[in-house]
Every structure is written in structure tokens, then in C-alpha cells.
């Protein structure tokens, strides 16, 4: 049983995790993470968590800008619609375009604006010669949907994730990546962090949910028919040390790119690895380890750290996140307000 106080804390932890991962990961996006850079990362995070000092905010990127749009669309008095979500994305992007958006998704925003959102999913469906984007942009912003569906069944969750994804991402890998990220958060919301965490059970549940999604694919016609199941299986092998989980193996197996398939399972892996005591077993340190480890893998650091820290925040709640670290992230107060409003909804 999760009481109301813990659940409110979990809502805050989910959105704050998403924000902190984005803000702290962004400066390392695309960098080679050699031992020197990893030390810089560690020192940076130590400083941000240490005694408070006044410094410019760590700015958030597209991950948070779009997460806020999703949250505000759900919270709108008229209720969620793809047209409203598309409008919120367009307004936000043209107000503040320099947030490091994906190279192709900005074309969707331009088309949506030029057509006055006549068809909210049309421009996304036309991306990449009609195959749609398989980037991680739908997954990176999905946490408010998982929160909204905390007490709803999985069918409703999957439907709302799909509806919100299709405004920018129509490729099945982009959509299923968002569904997997939402399911990872959704499951954590139901778990009490005071109980023993059953990693096997957590992964089997994710696998069962993904099997249901991917069973609709035809393996003869679709090379990616079991794509996420294969990634979850590979993730489990790494966690069980059937394959040595050094950085090279993690990156070769799970990846760290802007593609949803090669970043969402990686984010879940970061959370599970840091939770299981492989790195440590204290809640405060688990959050910090998840954040630091996700960034240390390099590549799409803001997004992988954002997704991993959001899952971790959903599991533990916000009490275990360093207050000083939160204060250093742009717009943290507003993320807490959004989390509380989603909880009250
Ligand atoms: N864009 C970035 N990072 C680049 C560096 C930013 C720089 N630091 C700055 O400040 O400017 N990060 C953000 O983009 C990712 C989310 O992207 P999203 O929303 O999925 O966008 P998009 O454009 O749809 O997809 C991303 C790229 O994936 C490739 N791709 C996707 N589908 C494809 C397909 N069907 N065929 C071929 N390629 C496909 C393309 O290269 C897309 O541009 C997050 O990391 C966010 O932080
Ligand atoms: Mg970003
Ligand atoms: Mg990114």
C-alpha cells in the first residue's frame, strides 16, 4: 500500500528526476567520457549537492520543455487532446527554440504552425519518408502521462502514451519506447521503497507488457518485431552478470544514442544497476548513482539521465533527492507545482 504522502512525494520525485537528469546531463551530451571527464562529472555533482552557493541555473533542454507541455496539456481544463498538445509544443518551441531540440522534430513544429494544426499527427506521420521518427523524443517527455495514469489501468496508459507520442513520433520504435518508459515509471509508482525490491519481478512485468505490445508485429514482415523484448533480455543478462556489465558491453548491447530503442532500455538499466547494490544500496546514493552513472555512459546524456532519474524518483520519491541539487536546476519550483497539480488531479 502506498499512502498519499508517499505518492505525492513519488509524483514530485518523478518530475524532479526528469528535470535534474536533463539539466545535469546536458553539458555532457555527445562528449567522450574518459576518466578525466568522469572525474569532472563527479566533482560537478559533488559541488551541486554540497553547501548551497549562488550560481546561474543549470538550464534545461527540450526534454524538460516538452515534459512541461505534456503536463500542461493533461492539466488543461478542457482535458487532453492531440490538437492541444501540438499547439503547446508549437507555442513553446517558437517562444524558446534554443533548447537543443531534435534535428527533424523542428520540421514537425513548423508544419503544424503553417497548417494551423489542421491535422495534429499528419506532419509527424510524414517524417523520414513516411516511416516516422524513432528518436527518443516521445519517451523523454512521457513522465506526466505515467503520473496521470498512476491509478488507471495499463490499457488507458498505453493509449494515452500512444496518442501523445503520435504528435511528433509515428514510428513504432519511437512509440513503443515511450510506452516502455511510461510502464517503467508506472510500475515504480506502485512499489513501496521500504519493501525489498524484486528486480526479477520488475523485469518480468516489463517483459510481459512489451510482449503484449510486440505480439501484434509480424516477424516475417518486420525486422524489429521483437526489438524491445530483445533489449530487455540483453539488459537482464547484464544485470545478472551473464555478460560483464562494463561500460563497453553496456554501450555495445544497449546503446546510448538518440534512438528510443538504444536509450530507453539503457535508462531502465541505469536505474536497476544502481538500485541493486551493485554500486551501493542507500536510497540517497541510489539517486545520485543513477544520475551520475547514466551521464557517465556518454552519448545522449541529458535524455538517458532524465529518463533514468525519473524512474528512480518515481520509486523513492523526492525526499531522497539532494535539496541543494534541486535548487540548482532551472524551474525546479514549477516542476514541483506541476507534480502536485497532477497528483491532485
Ligand atoms: N538534439 C539533441 N541533441 C543534439 C545536440 C543539441 C545541442 N547540444 C544543442 O544545444 O543544440 N537532443 C534532443 O534530441 C533528442 C530527441 O530527439 P527527437 O525529439 O526524437 O527528434 P527527431 O529529430 O525526431 O529524432 C532524433 C534523430 O534521430 C534520427 N532519426 C529518427 N527517426 C529516424 C528515421 N526514421 N530514419 C532515420 N533517422 C531517424 C535523426 O537523426 C533525428 O534527427 C533528445 O536527445 C533530445 O535531448
Ligand atoms: Mg535535450
Ligand atoms: Mg538528449
Terminal Cα span: 20 Å
Number of alpha- plus pi-helical segments: 18
What class do helices, strands and sheet pairing give? mainly alpha
Please, what is the average pLDDT? 94
Q: What fraction strand? A: under 5%
What is the helical fraction, as a range of percent?
Answer: 55-70%
User: Number of DSSP strands?
Assistant: 0
Largest sheet geometry: none
Overall radius of gyration: 19 Å
CATH homology group: ADP-ribosylation/Crystallin J1
At CATH's second level, what is the architecture?
Answer: Orthogonal Bundle
Description:
This protein is mainly α and 345 residues long. It has a single domain (4-74, 135-215, 226-344), classed as ADP-ribosylglycohydrolase fold. It is built from 18 helices and no strands. Helix 1 (4-25) packs antiparallel against helix 18 (332-344), helix 4 (82-95) packs across helix 5 (105-114) and helix 11 (199-214) packs antiparallel against helix 12. The longest helix is centred in the N-terminal third of the chain and has 22 residues, at 4-25. 50% of the residues are buried. The protein binds ADP-ribosyl-L-arginine and magnesium ion (2 copies). One magnesium ion (MG) binds next to helix 16.
Amino acid at each position: 500500500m502506498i499512502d498519499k504522502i508517499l505518492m505525492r512525494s513519488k509524483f514530485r520525485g518523478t518530475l524532479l528526476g526528469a528535470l535534474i537528469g536533463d539539466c545535469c546531463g546536458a553539458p555532457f551530451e555527445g562528449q567522450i567520457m574518459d576518466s578525466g571527464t568522469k572525474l569532472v562529472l563527479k566533482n560537478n555533482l559533488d559541488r551541486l549537492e554540497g553547501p548551497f552557493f549562488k550560481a546561474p541555473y543549470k538550464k534545461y533542454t527540450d526534454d524538460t520543455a516538452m515534459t512541461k507541455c505534456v503536463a500542461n496539456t493533461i492539466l488543461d481544463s478542457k482535458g487532453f487532446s492531440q490538437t492541444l498538445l501540438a499547439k503547446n509544443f508549437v507555442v513553446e518551441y517558437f517562444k524558446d527554440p534554443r533548447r537543443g531540440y531534435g534535428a527533424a522534430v523542428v520540421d514537425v513544429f513548423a508544419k503544424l504552425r503553417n497548417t494551423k494544426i489542421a491535422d495534429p499527427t499528419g506532419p509527424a506521420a510524414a517524417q523520414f519518408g513516411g516511416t516516422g521518427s524513432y528518436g527518443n523524443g516521445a519517451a523523454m517527455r512521457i513522465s506526466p502521462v505515467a503520473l496521470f495514469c498512476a491509478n488507471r489501468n495499463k490499457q488507458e496508459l498505453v493509449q494515452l502514451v500512444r496518442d501523445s507520442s503520435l504528435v511528433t513520433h509515428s514510428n513504432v520504435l519511437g512509440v513503443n519506447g515511450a510506452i516502455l518508459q511510461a510502464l517503467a515509471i508506472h510500475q515504480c509508482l506502485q512499489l513501496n521503497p521500504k519493501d525489498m525490491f524484486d528486480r526479477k519481478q520488475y523485469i518480468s512485468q516489463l517483459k510481459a507488457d512489451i510482449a503484449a505490445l510486440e505480439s501484434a508485429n509480424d516477424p516475417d514482415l518486420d525486422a524489429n518485431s521483437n526489438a524491445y523484448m530483445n533489449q530487455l533480455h540483453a539488459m537482464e543478462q547484464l544485470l545478472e552478470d551473464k555478460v560483464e556489465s562494463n561500460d563497453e558491453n553496456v554501450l555495445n548491447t544497449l546503446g546510448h544514442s538518440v534512438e528510443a530503442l538504444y536509450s530507453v532500455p539503457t535508462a531502465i538499466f541505469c536505474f536497476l544497476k544502481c538500485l541493486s547494490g551493485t554500486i551501493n544500496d542507500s536510497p540517497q546514493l541510489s539517486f545520485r548513482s543513477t544520475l551520475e552513472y547514466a551521464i557517465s555512459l556518454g552519448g545522449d546524456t541529458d535524455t538517458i539521465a532524465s529518463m533514468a532519474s525519473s524512474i528512480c524518483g518515481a520509486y523513492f520519491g523526492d525526499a531522497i533527492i539532494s535539496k541543494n541539487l534541486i535548487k540548482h536546476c532551472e524551474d525546479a519550483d514549477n516542476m514541483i507545482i506541476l507534480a502536485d497539480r497532477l497528483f491532485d488531479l
